[in-house]
Amino acid sequence: MPPREAIVEALMRLAAEQPWNDIEIADIAREAGVTLAEFRDAYPSKGAVLGGFARMIDKQVLDGASDDLDDEPTRERLFDVLMRRLDAMDPYKPALRRIAFALRGDLLSLAALNQVALNSQRFMLASAGISTEGPLGRVKLQGVAIAFARVMEVWLEDDDPALARTMAALDREIRNGERFMERAEDVRRLTAPFRALAQSLAEGGRRRRRRDRDDRNEDEGNPLGGDPAAAI
After folding, report:
1. For residues 178 and 225, what is the distance between their CA atoms, to the nearest angstrom?
2. Under 8 Å between Cβ of 86 and 120
3. Is the dihedral of CA 122, 125, 131, 135 positive or negative?
4. Residue 109 class from Cβ within 10 Å (0-12 exposed, 13-18 middle, 19+ buried)?
């Protein structure tokens, strides 16, 4: 097993058995069968290993993608992708439950994990055939990241093999997201003339400031003023 993958698996095994804050990088290296130098070459910190875990799950989901749902509505495609993500995470559920509890009040760690989630969801949405470009692309990404985090809270406590509660929560979040994006698109269309006017005014202001700056520069280099003919 490659060192990066071995380190991820080692961390998740340890996290399933002991509190997150008790796990040291030396413990992870020992469990993974790598040296600290090899650990440092693979990851800069324990938290970065969670980013490696997210990328590992991304790859599993993307490798398992098929074109079976290409003709289905967007909602169904996204539901399938995110459920496959939960399925890929299932072997690590005990570890994820402990990690989620430990980091619940750590704002800096949560902000870092949000960025990891945004990167993952960019590929999940792409796999579902949903664009993340354009004016509302960032809104889609953050919305899905938040929605999936809410679903994970349900999933972590859902011990039913059928995952009925989890699937209901995911369906609800996707439908809420659809309604939000429809409203956001309506607002974007309605405000388009005002945004165009504001942009035009801002560009005019920038042009005036550039002209004023150029005039000042010319005056500073010519004590007789900005007109070269004044020196005659």
Report:
1. 61
2. no
3. negative
4. middle
- Amino acid at position 92, single letter: Y
Specify the long-range contacts of residues 147-156, CB closer than 8 Å, at least 24 apart: 147/173, 147/174, 147/176, 147/177, 148/82, 148/85, 148/117, 148/121, 148/173, 149/117, 151/82, 151/86, 152/86, 152/96, 152/100, 153/100, 155/86, 155/93, 156/93, 156/96, 156/97, 156/100
Place of tokens 């402990």: 98
Region at 222 (left for phi over 0; alpha for psi -120 to 50; beta for the rest): beta
Region for 225 from its dihedrals, namely left if φ exceeds 0, alpha if ψ lies in -120 to 50, beta otherwise: left
Segment holding 166, helix H or strand E = helix 164-190
What whole-number distance in Å separates Cα of residue 74 and Cα of residue 196?
A: 31
Cα 55 from Cα 116, distance rounded (Å): 9
Tens-digit pLDDT profile for the chain (232 aa)?
899 999 999 999 999 999 999 999 999 999 999 999 999 999 999 999 999 999 999 999 999 888 877 778 888 999 999 999 999 999 999 999 999 999 988 888 889 999 999 999 999 999 999 888 887 888 888 999 999 999 999 999 999 999 999 999 999 999 998 887 776 664 555 554 554 555 666 666 666 666 666 555 544 555 444 443 333 2
